[in-house]
Amino acid sequence: MAFLGEYEVSVTAGSRIVLPKKIRENLKGNTFILTKGYDICLAGYDKQDWNNRAGELTKISLLETDNVSKRRFLFSGACEIEIDVQGRFVIPKALFGYINLIRSTLTIIGVGDHFEIWETKSWQGYLKQINQQVTSN
């Protein structure tokens, strides 16, 4: 299972989007976990994979401030999301606000073991930055 590709999707009323079929095919069922991602995006995980990762994260010492901060960041924003028969789902209000939607489109990218949802303008800016780093080396 590997999440691959880049897809631009429209946001409809009520913060509803369609999860691309190529992304849905890598989920085991019609639910997944959506949480805050790094670089101001959302991160989506297959539910079973999330449960495995969550188990590992909860074993990390609470005595280390950095570990506590990471757990707070990931778990506080995590939501179980259900996909309808047409492949649509609603992004929860708190998560929708986190990505600072500027236009009515989002970009969904595969990142191997998970997928990410970016505000399209932010994704394009991030790509420019990465391209400059890659071409300057």
UniProtKB/TrEMBL annotation:
Pfam families: MraZ. Residues 3-66, 74-132 form the MraZ domain. One of its GO terms (cellular component) is cytoplasm. It is found in: Cytoplasm, Nucleoid. HAMAP family: MraZ. Belongs to the MraZ family. It comes from the Bacteria. Forms oligomers. It comes from Candidatus Roizmanbacteria bacterium RIFCSPLOWO2_02_FULL_36_11. Keywords: Cytoplasm, DNA-binding, Transcription, Transcription regulation. This is Transcriptional regulator MraZ. Gene3D superfamilies: Transcriptional regulator MraZ domain. Its main location: cytoplasm. The keyword DNA-binding applies. GO terms for biological process: negative regulation of DNA-templated transcription initiation. One of its GO terms (molecular function) is DNA-binding transcription factor activity.
